[in-house]
Design brief:
Length: about 525
């Protein structure tokens, strides 16, 4: 117990000694801080004074600098303001000068207008006086004209209406003469430009295409080896020839001509079938009705095949694509068809190429023109079996096979049966005329030829003022001689136009007909 108390005493003694040490340390620290604070205060005071002095110096320098800068800015602003004021003054002076000039100009214009106004007043007054004078003179002139008209009517013993008609007739003659001169001049200019161009196109087309001339008729002559064969062809009591004519539909002419018999038929296909059949019978030698029927059937099949081949050949020659086989077959039938002795298929091929060449020269579709030209006469392959003209028949036939409007119009209108709606129709018409009108292309009977010449001369001589007319150059030209006392040069031109128009309206002819009007004045005297 005693030991425990002793330990507590020493513990409190130790604790008391430590607290005393702390108190002594704190007091010493405070004393040291006070000493140090006193020294720092003196130094800080010195620093503050230095800083205050420096700030005062800096402020003085800034104030001086601000004063200098302010004076410079003031001078700059003042100078700028002075310049602006001077510029405004200059502008005002210029505006004042311009206004002064305008004012002077307006004053001068006012003076000029015043002078013009006075002049206008004077002119109006003068015009008024002149108008009065003119009215007076017109009145006097009317009175004078009335007096002169009365005097003239008394002298001429004519009424006013008669004099009026005489004057109108004279004016009409003068105007007609002037019109004729004008028409002559215009036609000469048009002919110089158009005729040369059209002639060149036609000549180029004809030169580029040269086709052979073919001429056929309605009869076929067949050679026989001997006259005994004629008897065998006739047969007992004529049974062979009757059977032949019945099966083929042709007429067989057996006359005294040695070595020949003739087959006659207007249908070219039947005529060709009969000719080939007869040649086969003569070569075979066995001639009797049964054999005739057998060979006719075989020949018909051969001809039908030949028709298709000829149509294909024509289409191939013309380089035409997409044509219906039925149309090709009808084209082939044209090989056995003739027109005025001209083979229609060769004529159609020729028209096709001529149409293409003309269309190419005119800048149109040559292929379309060639197609229309080839098909233009296709109606002739079936006009024996149908009513109507071949243009209408052909147009309706190809319409079933979706041919274009240009081709349809060219087929139906190449003889002017319907109006032309495309430029290809007149092209085909021109090509058709060229093909039919060239020398040797077609054959014309003597009676028809003479009739055409007489019609030309009759039309020409029916025109007033014509003395004589002569058709020359196989009807390609009409020479007309007019009375020089009744017609002048200008009237001769009108007569030529009238004759040409009547020929176009009243006649049908291939190609063109030239009308030449001659006016000649002869002065005859005798030296004695």
């Amino acid at each position: 117990m005693f030991s425990i108390l002793a330990e507590d005493v020493w513990l409190w003694i130790g604790m008391g000694g430590g607290f005393a040490g702390l108190v002594v340390g704190f007091v010493g620290t405070m004393v040291l801080f006070k000493v140090l604070s006193s020294a720092a205060g003196k130094k800080a005071k010195v620093d503050v004074d230095n800083m205050m002095n420096k700030a005062r110096d800096d402020a003085a320098e800034l104030r001086k600098k601000a004063e200098v800068d302010g004076k410079a800015e003031y001078l700059r602003i003042k100078e700028s303001a002075d310049k602006e004021v001077e510029y405004q003054r200059k502008e005002l002076r210029e505006q004042e000068q311009r206004l002064q000039k305008r004012e002077d100009t307006l004053d001068r214009k006012l003076d000029t207008l015043g002078i013009k106004e006075k002049n206008l007043e004077n002119m109006e007054k003068s015009i008024g006086d002149r108008k009065k004078n003119l009215e007076t003179k017109e009145k006097q002139l009317d009175e004078t004209l009335a007096q002169q008209r009365d005097t003239l009517m008394r002298i001429t013993s004519m009424s006013f209406e008669e004099a009026r008609q005489l004057l109108l007739a004279r004016i009409e003659n003068e105007i007609r003469h002037d019109t004729a001169m004008m028409v002559q001049k215009i036609e000469e200019q048009a002919r110089d430009e158009a005729k040369q161009k059209s002639t060149n196109i036609m000549l180029q087309a004809m030169q580029r295409y040269a086709a052979e001339v073919t001429s056929e008729g309605t009869t076929k002559s067949i050679e026989i080896p001997s006259d005994d064969m004629k008897g065998r062809i006739i047969g007992r009591e004529g049974r062979n020839i009757r059977a032949f004519e019945q099966v083929t539909g042709v007429d067989v002419i057996i006359d005294d001509t040695p070595g020949l018999i003739t087959v006659n038929c207007f249908d070219p296909v039947r005529r060709e079938v009969a000719k080939i059949t007869m040649e086969k019978l003569i070569a075979d030698g066995r001639i009797h009705p049964a054999r005739i029927e057998e060979i006719v059937d075989a020949t018909q099949k051969e001809i039908e095949n030949n028709i298709r081949q000829m149509g294909k050949k024509a289409v191939l020659e013309c380089n035409i694509q997409g044509m219906h086989p039925k149309v090709v077959e009808m084209l082939g039938r044209l090989h056995y068809r003739t027109s005025y002795g001209q083979n229609v298929l060769r004529h159609s091929i020729e028209v096709a190429f001529l149409s293409q060449m003309i269309a190419d020269e005119l800048g149109l579709d040559g292929a379309l023109a060639r197609r229309a030209g080839l098909l233009h006469d296709i109606g002739k392959s079936m006009d024996h079996d149908q009513e109507g003209g071949h243009p209408a028949i052909g147009m309706e036939f190809v319409r079933k096979f979706n041919e274009g409007e240009a081709v349809l119009n060219a087929i139906g209108g190449h003889h002017a049966d319907i109006p032309a709606t495309t430029p290809y129709t007149p092209i085909v018409m021109a090509a058709d005329a060229i093909s039919g009108a060239r020398p040797g292309a077609r054959r014309e009977t003597l009676e028809r030829y003479i009739k055409r010449l007489r019609e030309l001369e009759t039309i020409a001589t029916s025109i007033p003022g014509v003395k004589m007319a002569f058709a020359i150059q196989a009807g390609r030209e009409v020479r007309v001689i007019v009375d020089p006392d009744r017609c002048d040069d200008a009237t001769s031109k009108l007569i030529a136009r009238d004759i040409a128009k009547r020929i176009q309206a009243e006649m049908t002819y291939p190609g063109e007909i030239r009308v030449t009007v001659l006016r000649e004045v002869r002065a005859v005297d005798f030296a004695r």
